[in-house]
Amino acid sequence: MSYHVESDAVSISINNKDEFMKVRTRVAPSPTGDPHVGTAYMALFCLCFARQHGGQFVLRIEDTDAARSTTTHEAQILQSLKWLGLDWDEGPDCGGPFAPYRQSERAEQGIYQQYADELVANGHAFKCFCTPERLEVMRQEQTARGEGARYDGLCTSLDQQEVENKIAAGEPHVVRMKVPAEGQCIVKDRLRGEIEIDWAQVDMQILLKTDGNPTYHLAVVIDDHLMEITHIIRGEEWISSAPKHILLHKYLGWDMPELIHMPLLRNPDKSKLSKRKNPTSINFFERMGYLPEVILNYLGMLGWSMPDGEEKFTLKEMIDKFDINRISLGAPVFDIEKLKWLNGRWLREDLSDDEFADRLTTWAYNRENLMQIIPLVKERVDVFTELPNLTSFFVEGLPVVTAESFEVKNVPSEDIVKILQFAAWETEALGDWNRDNLNQIFARLADVLGIKIRDVLAPIFIAISGKAVSPPLFDSMVVLGPDMTRARLRHALNTLGGVSKKKLKKLEKEYRANFA
Ligand code: GLU
Hints:
It is a single chain. With 516 residues, the protein is mainly alpha-helical. It has a domain at 382-515: Arc Repressor Mutant, subunit A (Orthogonal Bundle). Helices cover 46% and strands 10% of the residues. The chain has helices spanning 37-52, 71-84, 103-108, 111-121, 132-144, 160-168, 216-226, 242-252, 282-287, 292-301, 315-321, 336-350, 353-364, 367-377, 387-391, 413-429, 435-449, 453-465, 473-480, 482-495, 501-515, and strands at residues 2-6, 11-15, 24-27, 56-59, 125-128, 174-177, 184-189, 193-198, 206-208, 231-235, 258-262. Helix 8 links the parallel strand 10 and strand 11. Bound molecules: glutamic acid. Glutamic acid binds at residues 28-30, 62, 216, 220, 234, 238.
């Protein structure tokens, strides 16, 4: 079966032939944050689809955003996906025929530059010298006219000589793709059918930044092609980018892989699942004591169902029965209560006492955890029996606290809420989760609020450890990890009665004024 994407300017043929062809899927996380359940969700569907067709599943690291990508996040993402049992056939850790699988390394090899040059040489892309100031004025004018922001194409009219002169003069520039001014792109999605998008809504996307590094849009297209990806399974937030990708494939004379945009996971209030409202890190669920196979089971249930309607299934069962057409497009709500219920079912129905003991030992008393905790408490105990009281909070999930727990001398309750809320926001924004950075955050908090650091930390101690005294606070936060720490700060706020919308607005204003 084959169909065409038509517009005035382009006609692209996409083949839907996975019944007969080899299947290669990929998950392509950007290592800019904690390992997100959304990444595991995509990886699960990519894996099932590839395995079901006897194909390959590739893990590619999209670290073209050098400022936000870190090797720590990359390592955590790999570790989390492995913990879940989502094994890839090719990736940065195990290599493969299309290595390297890290875009920063591919950029060093000049892969993206080479295709950007080709696009420019063929007139499908152009060098753009517009300054940020000019682009800002352009945007403001567009907004004033009620138009969407879109590059106006000024630099497409530069002739060869002008371009060369500007380059000789050392003017910074980017490379942008050309996009038809009118007509429509029809994005064919396996689950959604044909989606029409006006070219007028599609920006002349930057492909190479001023530093010569590629943007996501260029790198993703080139890598999907060179890595022979046949099916792109990704989140629906990328639908609006699909016209750019389709057009770049066309410009480069390549077949477009088939597109499958999965529905986004949502908070119970139906907003997009975000760490601002809920824990989203796989690490958090690991620390909360969920079983990896249950997380997969639950992610599988969100947006997909077994033919017999059975809610409890293993990864193997999901692969065996997998049918991409059974994916439902309704907004799947990631509901921790439901996940907890499912985990309970698995614990009771599937683990023998023996296995239960093994799992528990690995979870709570594994060497890695102990080696992080022991240095924090060794000096404070004489006998082992003193340990539980001091360290139980590391494995407690959300500590048991009451509003009274937060009554701190010298600090009015108004300020306690502010401290906790600001701490939650500050820790959300923190890139590298380490002791020094945490120290800085709280020192600044004390400074801005004009409250003694000791008093600022008092409610934080309680939120994090459930007690007024605990092992060193920042080290403990490092052990707990960002998601668990934030969850405890939020839990503290809820225990204090929550923050009303009105109050939140006021706090946000004050926060932005002081911390932006
Ligand atoms: N690097 C992108 C992300 O982080 C991948 C999007 C895609 O699958 O094309 O979501």
